[in-house]
Amino acid sequence: MRFNLYLNRQTKIQLVVFTTIALFTLALMGLHYMRLPALLFGVGRYTVTVELPQAGGLYTTGNVTYRGAEVGRVRSVNLTDTGVAAVLSLKSGIDIPSDLTAEVHSQSAIGEQYVELRPRNATSPPLKNGDRITLDNTSVPADINALLDAVDAGLRAVPRDNLKTVVDESYTAVGGLGPQLSALVKGATDLSIDARENLDSLLTLIDKSRPVLDSQTETSDAIQRWAAQLATVTRELQTHDDAVAGVIGNAGPALGEGRALVERLQPALPTVLANLVSPGQVALTFQPNIEQLLVLLPQLVAVQSAGLVANHNTKQPYRGEYLSFNLNLNLPPPCTTGFLPAQQQRNPALVDYPKRPPGATYCRIAQDGITEVRGARNTPCVTKPGKRAPSVKLCESDEEYVPLNDGFNWKGDPNATLSGQDVPDKLGPGDPTLELELSTSIADYDPATGTYTGPGGRQYTQSDLAQTASEDKTWQSMLVPPGA
């Protein structure tokens, strides 16, 4: 018998649409869900071999994670002469540092092992196709069966009565604490979730914690000494508990009295404290000098006390300290080097007060000279012990003090100010131009007496320098004093 199958146009269209949808669905399942191109041809994948001491429950198609994200699958697990070789199929486009460790972990208590890739740093080259992770860089979890056997053996070792006691006491300890335990578990869960979201920061913190931990290890002796001293202080506080309690109890009234005292001293106290700011700053600046004075004070008191012993139990009318006023006038002679020359010195009889010369004048002879040994040139430098200089600037610099000359008299142009030149008033090294004496000097001449002062400060008499002097000059007249 023969049948003729006739399909109308609508049926044909429906079959074509159904076939198209079926083919699209099969292609989608093969490409997206079954990942046939990656499984069959390795498209978008590369393989890395991991050497393991044992399988540790790892199986084919197990997950491979990197920083908590899935990056591949376990393609195969094969036996080798040294253990197990697991071939990992990893996704391309994800750079995984090659300096890492591969660890096998369990997803849950019933198994579901997966491989976790944990890099040591982020600067090493990324993994590439064909790389091997050696056995010394891998680890597997402990055997769960051995762990259960150990737990079972431990429970069997505990007597049944004692175990019942532990269970009863545990119920007593946590009975009725359901909400608290629930809050504790929820807090631990939230902490774990937050830690997973900030995994990169936590890993960085763990990696960077080694220097801190090493410093703690290196200073363990100091920490032990500090702990021992803290224990001593705590023990002393415990021993003197009554005294400490008394101090704490009386602290409130004492603070009240202090506050009342401050209130009574207002407004004078704030003004006094404000005025102490400037002396405090000066004292801070000259702290080394103050310390030196405090060090020498006992010795000074001892020397002063020894001076009172000379007239002790004697018939001297004065029983106090013996002083001898031996006036050695002009021994040594006064220092004029570095000061104004004699022509520019003012008469002591003048009572006006003109402005002082610019700059600073001080004795500019050598520092080991016998004149003015306590002058500005021998001022000790605060910040540089052993150095002496007339100014802070010279103390802080690397330059040394340079004397103007070795003598006591003024050296330089006696009319420096009048001629527009600088006088030796610098608080630094000597100016070599001042070492030269000018061949021409100008001095103030008194025609009434015929006297003038020379460059060295010595007074001379010459009566025939005025315009009114007689033109007849003989050698006899030069020997006769003026006015004779």
Main traits of this protein?
alpha/beta, 484 residues, 13 helices, 11 strands, 3-stranded antiparallel β-sheet, 8-stranded mixed β-sheet
List the helices and strands and how they pair.
Blueprint: H1 9-33, H2 36-41, E1 45-52, E2 63-66, E3 69-79, E4 84-91, E5 100-108, E6 111-119, E7 132-133, E8 138-139, H3 144-157, H4 160-174, H5 178-197, H6 199-218, H7 220-239, H8 241-265, H9 268-275, H10 277-285, H11 287-307, H12 392-396, E9 445-446, E10 451-453, E11 459-461, H13 475-479
Parallel strand pairs: 1-7, 2-6, 5-8
Antiparallel strand pairs: 1-4, 2-3, 3-4, 5-6, 9-10, 10-11
| Overall strand count | 11
Portion in beta strands: 5-15%
Helix content: 25-40%
Low-confidence stretches: 414-421, 423-441
Query: How are strands sequenced across the largest beta sheet?
Result: 7-1-4-3-2-6-5-8
**Biggest pleated-sheet summary:** 8 strands, mixed
- Coarse shape: elongated
Distance between the termini: 185 Å
Number of helices: 13
Average of the residue pLDDT scores? 77
Order of helices and strands: HHEEEEEEEEHHHHHHHHHHEEEH
Structural class: alpha/beta
Using only C-alpha atoms, the radius of gyration works out to: 51 Å
